[in-house]
User: Which sequence fits this backbone?
């Protein structure tokens, strides 16, 4: 899977929007952009994913650059429960031998202040 | 209902012992994984099984032996435990019919080798 680059950490205040960036300059045409997060002492959980168009769900929004070399996960109103490590992961779903495995980078540690 | 469960949650043992971690998913998924998260918090894939067949083995020492008695279970047996095996082990599952192609993680098993 292609590599992603994220800031080590970010901070936010409660009830403010948070924009978590991810660079993936070597993304291929068949790579989907997935975001997972890991709350303290828990396993990772799926947040959102997309290919080319921006995506919204109940947890977050995903904004994908037109050239797909970067993306931004948007939490519209951060809560204390959103404090977690956020991982941006590229997944090639065109087939091959990856068998759906997730290749995690270091992620971004999000701290939310009350 | 818990989607992916692991037992035990904590495991403390001596070097040289043999131990097992069990994982069960009730999502009807075909593919299951074991990931290891070390003290530096890096998450790495170890194994994957699809319908009881091993499909990913990421250069893990052969002291680690996964076993899948049926597609709902993927257990991890570790022989001759070493200090470096101390980590949190996460089980995950993925359904090929899931249009989001997401993985669901268990709560993790914290293994401490003394």
Assistant:
């Amino acid at each position: 899977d292609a590599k992603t680059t994220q800031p080590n950490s970010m901070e936010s205040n409660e009830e403010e929007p948070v924009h978590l960036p991810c660079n993936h300059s070597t993304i291929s045409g068949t790579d989907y952009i997935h975001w997972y997060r890991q709350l303290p002492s828990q396993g990772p959980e799926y947040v959102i994913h997309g290919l080319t168009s921006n995506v919204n769900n109940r947890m977050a929004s995903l904004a994908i650059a037109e050239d797909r070399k970067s993306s931004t996960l948007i939490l519209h109103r951060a809560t204390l429960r959103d404090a977690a490590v956020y991982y941006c992961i590229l997944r090639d779903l065109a087939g091959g031998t990856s068998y759906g495995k997730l290749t995690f980078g270091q992620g971004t540690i999000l701290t939310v202040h009350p | 209902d818990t989607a992916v469960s692991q037992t035990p949650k904590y495991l403390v043992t001596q070097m040289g012992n043999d131990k097992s971690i069990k994982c069960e998913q009730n999502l009807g998924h075909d593919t299951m994984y074991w990931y290891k998260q070390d003290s530096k918090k890096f998450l790495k894939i170890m194994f994957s099984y699809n319908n009881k067949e091993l499909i990913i083995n990421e250069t893990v020492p052969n002291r680690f032996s996964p076993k899948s008695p049926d597609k709902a279970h993927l257990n991890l047996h570790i022989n001759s435990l070493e200090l470096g095996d101390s980590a949190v082990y996460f089980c995950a599952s993925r359904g090929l019919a899931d249009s989001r192609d997401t993985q669901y993680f268990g709560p993790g098993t914290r293994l401490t080798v003394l």
About this structure: The radius of gyration of chain A is 14 Å. Chain A touches chain B at residues 32, 34, 36, 38, 41-46, 49, 85, 87, 91, 93, 99-104, 106 (CB under 8 Å).
